Amino acid sequence: MIDTHCHIDFEDFDDDRDEVIKRAKDKLDNVIVSGYSNDSNMDVLKLSKDYEGFIYPTFGFHPVSSQNATDDEIKTAHENIVEHLDDIVAIGEVGMDYFYVTDNSLRKRQQKIFTGFLELANEYKKPIVMHVRDCEKKAVNIIYEYEDIPYFVFHCYGGSLKTAKRIMNMDNAYMSFSTMLCYSKQHQDLIEKIDLDYILTETDSPYLAMTKEERNEPANVVNAVYKIAEIKNMDIGTVDEITTSNACNIFKI
Ligand SMILES: [Zn+2]
Known about the structure:
Layout: E1 2-6, H1 17-27, E2 30-34, H2 38-50, E3 55-59, H3 63-66, H4 71-83, E4 90-97, H5 104-124, E5 128-133, H6 136-143, E6 152-155, H7 161-170, E7 173-177, H8 185-193, E8 199-201, H9 221-232, H10 236-251
Parallel strand pairs: 1-2, 2-3, 3-4, 4-5, 5-6, 6-7, 7-8
Helix pairs in contact: 9-10
Bound molecules: zinc ion.
């Protein structure tokens, strides 16, 4: 079982990060921690060195903050990715967020930065982990252009079933589902129709816990796997096996 997307470098975990990771180790094979800023990229790299073989890092720049990022900051993000190509298992999280970013010119800026990361992933043949919210169809149209990106991951997918079908048709694109599955009817309906071969599991910790007050943590990815098994009427072992093997194949871990 793998938590393919979380942020345990957040300060929310400063007091008990080791215990959180220990609880994850008891239940999971691996954890992928996604960088979201230049500082965070360095923090997730350090975490992956401290827990070598268990934690793997990805370097990115969160789309919501990318709208206001300077060219220099983005340039640094690109340079860090190139410098650490062998350390990171993917580029991300990067993407587009139309829920939080509503201004048209800022959306354009966000898209330009996103395509910059796509070009990098294409050039260096790295998988890409995307945060896409309320513009999934547009994102699919954009990523079609990049033939040399080995794998695309829509982290915490919440788009339409129609777009999900287009994603499945790409054959090298995946949708990741979080612990949100336990309470989101929209995500439950999607899981029913999406083939397990295109599904990954994640927590997005510290976000997306069962209740708003709670802090999520990687060990809770178990709940997402259980829910998928329940919805698809399959046994937990099979869901675990297929989703884990999808992740191992994408991230080469
Ligand atoms: Zn995230």
